[in-house]
């Protein structure tokens, strides 16, 4: 069978086309994909030497990334997350929602919103724990309560440190003009 | 034990109602049948004028792709520059595909596969990822087509007449569910298919080279959920082509192998 | 005669059937039209909207050509075999019609005596069907489309097997999962016993699959089979697993100790036949209780004049501390003194197993008393004095 095996030259279509035009390949030996390819050519020619496009890869960031990063930087997340559980929202999701709600009310400055949101989150968790305790068995709630309390402890400690030490004031200032990239680096 | 239980979780495609969509949709309305039976070759040419004769555009939605985690790429460091135009961006170092572009490419690929199946072409599925090998073999069987998920002995295409001790018809379309042998090397069959002028459809991840693939589909080629989605889509597209052909030729419809959901339950009856 | 007529009829009938089929295939539309003429309400099958030109692929064409060539070749081979058989029958003065394969073998070994060691190297005459290996049937249809889904792997049967193993394993995993959720446990009584079995060895598997497989592929096979067998619910796929298990050579049978019989005087006795050593052959009877009387070919132990042979004979009795407690009768022929003594020794040891406890049998085995000694005389080599000894070497 007439054939060109040079895959680095042209495309499979142009090679077969050349053979057909030069009648090196008979019309009845035409491969069955030929007409389909002609009718629906691919978006780009499948050439071996097709140059790579010079397109920069942009970074994907969201507005709430700033506050989320802040949350994670100062609170070590201790909860266990099931990736198959789509119903339950994670603590950071809840936090972001509370934060957004507070900010929409627009009464407080950034730092205050952050602190109130943390408090509210802890409160919400406490309530959720209460309802869950009624519904679910003892063992499970025990496990959850430890996780929750850890988080609360961490949050309280955080507040103590922020109010007491002078060094924390410095970090507070940084929060305002926080650089997201630098936050995610470490 | 944990891993075993993952296999049992309901597949995402079932959750988002893809299954129903696969079954409910139909082939485009046929033109009034001519009085005289005409040569199938003429019909093959005629249906090429229809932009989407097998209605593959309604096989899936972008949300299906998203739910099957098609948008996840590899990390930035392993990016192949030729994949840049298919990307949406990079989220904290992880590349994310632009699913609109993926969907457009996937529809082209499905349409092509359906047309090849309509023309009674041989379609060969490839996959070198051991995690998904069984799934791909299974789906290829259900589609009534062929699969090669093992070590590629050089020369199966380029030296076929010697390898099989006979003149052998090569496949008319290769579908690569992943185009890499491992993270470093491309599957040799991609090159061999290009050599032998066999068109290819390939799922290309961010670390793959899409140049030699005739119909590249940018997307995640590792996750079993994504692979299952691709397999189901290609299977349905192929079946649409085949069903139409048999219908036109007046042949009885083929027995379609249903996915063996009840296979596991067989034991309980014993 | 009747049979032949009957066969002809069958052929005729077949032809008729074939013709009918041809008709129905030839004019499907006419029949539909005829039916429409005569019936008012008939569900006429929709006439096909398209027809396909029958195209035979290149692959099928070349296969058909090769198949034809092969058939021709086999035909001539068969003819030649028949002629050869007739000649052979003539030479042997037998009837050519009733000359069987056994007769052929006999005639060949008579007419062409061969001292070649390997039996495969000796002259033979067998039907061409046996001599030429069966050829693979076509693996694809007229359009060249292969039948097997994994045809392009070049080892479809093997990879299909691997696929099936994974299928079974997945099923068992699913089952295990469901059972765990329900709190059920696998049935201990039904547990799959694979102790006395081994996986099919590579050569055997290759024969079953009709494919050559590489070592690493066999490794893959055995790994996945082991994983399947290790599943706690493996007994559910027993039928599948047992297809690839082979019973180990039954050693327990050889180690099975025969029960002693009782003779006229009420004594227990056991006879071991075919006690072999070198070219000697003996059968040995041991009787309990006894006085230590030893009879060899009607004589006592002085049958052997050499001291070592006597020691050989008595060693198993001494080892089991049965000296003077049993009587031994032996008939021995062939071989020399030491061969005969060795044969009797082995016979006594084998017989004594019936009169001692399990522990003693085990220590007898460890002492090598129950092991057949397969050593034979080594041949003399030319240029040497004996098997190993060289001629005396003189410098000049």
From TrEMBL, chain A:
A GO MF term: structural constituent of ribosome
InterPro entries for this protein: mS23_dom, mS23_dom_met, Ribosomal_mS23_met
Location of the protein in the cell: Mitochondrion
Keyword Nucleus in annotation: no
Gene Ontology BP annotations: translation
CDD domains in alphabetical order: At1g26750 (cd23701)
GO CC field: mitochondrion; ribosome
Pfam family, one: MRP-S23
Keywords in alphabetical order: Mitochondrion, Ribonucleoprotein, Ribosomal protein
Stretches the record annotates as Disordered: 150-172
Record-annotated Small ribosomal subunit protein mS23 conserved domain positions: 2-125
PANTHER family (alphabetical): MITOCHONDRIAL RIBOSOMAL PROTEIN S23, SMALL RIBOSOMAL SUBUNIT PROTEIN MS23
Similarity comment: family membership: Belongs to the mitochondrion-specific ribosomal protein mS23 family.
Protein name: Small ribosomal subunit protein mS23
Species this chain originates from: Drosophila busckii (Fruit fly)
Lineage of origin: Eukaryota, Metazoa, Ecdysozoa, Arthropoda, Hexapoda
TrEMBL record, chain B:
InterPro entries in alphabetical order: Ribosomal_uS2, Ribosomal_uS2_bac/mit/plastid, Ribosomal_uS2_flav_dom_sf
Subcellular location: Mitochondrion
Pfam families: Ribosomal_S2
GO BP, one annotated term: translation
Cellular component, GO, one term: mitochondrial small ribosomal subunit
MF term (GO), any: structural constituent of ribosome
Superkingdom of the organism of origin: Eukaryota
Entry keyword set: Mitochondrion, Ribonucleoprotein, Ribosomal protein
HAMAP family per UniProt: Ribosomal_uS2_B
Family named by the database record: Belongs to the universal ribosomal protein uS2 family.
Function: Required for mitoribosome formation and stability, and mitochondrial translation.
Name recorded for this polypeptide: Small ribosomal subunit protein uS2m
Source species: Drosophila busckii
From TrEMBL, chain C:
Name assigned to this protein: Small ribosomal subunit protein uS9m
Keyword Transferase: no
Gene Ontology CC terms, in alphabetical order: mitochondrial inner membrane; mitochondrial small ribosomal subunit
Main location: mitochondrion
Subcellular location: Mitochondrion
Domain of life: Eukaryota
Record bears the keyword Ribonucleoprotein: yes
Pfam families: Ribosomal_S9
Taxonomic placement: Eukaryota, Metazoa, Ecdysozoa, Arthropoda, Hexapoda
Keywords attached to this entry: Mitochondrion, Ribonucleoprotein, Ribosomal protein, Transit peptide
Organism listed in the record: Drosophila busckii (Fruit fly)
InterPro entries the record matches: Ribosomal_Su5_D2-typ_SF, Ribosomal_uS9, Ribsml_uS5_D2-typ_fold_subgr
Biological process terms in GO annotation: translation
Family membership noted in the UniProt record: Belongs to the universal ribosomal protein uS9 family.
Molecular functions per Gene Ontology: RNA binding; structural constituent of ribosome
